[in-house]
What we know:
With 194 residues, the chain is α/β, with parallel strands linked by helices. It is built from seven helices and eight strands, in the order αβαβαββαβααββαβ.
Amino acid sequence: MSDQRLMQSIARLVPVGSRVLDLGCGDGALLDLLKRERGCTGYGVEIADANVLACVKRGVDVIQLNLDEGLALFDDNSFDVVLQIDTLQHLRNTETMLVETARVGRVGIVAFPNFAHWPNRLAVLRGRMPVTRRLPYQWYDTPNIRVGTFKDFEVLATKNKLSLLDAFGLQDGREVRFLPNARAATAVFRFERG
Length: 194
C-alpha cells in the first residue's frame, strides 16, 4: 500500500500500543508507521520476496506466508488488531480469510477498492472495465482476482456473523459516511466476531 492518506486513515483506527498482524503487508510501510506513530508492535505477513526484504530493511518483523494457506499458526485472539488493507481482492479464499481475521484478532480492519464507486459504474455503463487511481490496471493485467463493493462486504460480514463496529468510505483522504457505496473509492470496515 503506497497511498500515504490511506495509511494515515487506517492508522487512526488502530489503538495506541496495539499488537498488530498485517496480512499482505507489502513493503511494511503501514506497520512501520504504526510502530513509530502509534507505539504498536506486531508482525506483517507477506509472500513476495522483494516485499519481505523491504520489511526487513525497515525493521518490520515479517513472516513469509501464502495467505491462501490460512492462519493456522496463530492462536485465537493472538492480536489486538488484524489488518487486511488491499488484500481481500487478491485472495482465492476471501471468506475463509475474513473469518480467520476475526478469529486471530480481537478486531479486524479491512480496506479494499470499492467497485461501486460512481466513476467505476460510469465506466461499466460505457461498456468498459474501470481504470482509476484505486483500480489502475486493465482488465487483462490486474492482480485483483475479484471485485467487491461496500454493500457486498456488509452482506458477507452478516453472513459470517461479524459485528461491524465502524464502516465508511475513503475518498481523497476524507472519510465518506453518506452514501459511501457510490461516493468513495475505498471501502473501510472495522469488525469483531459477533
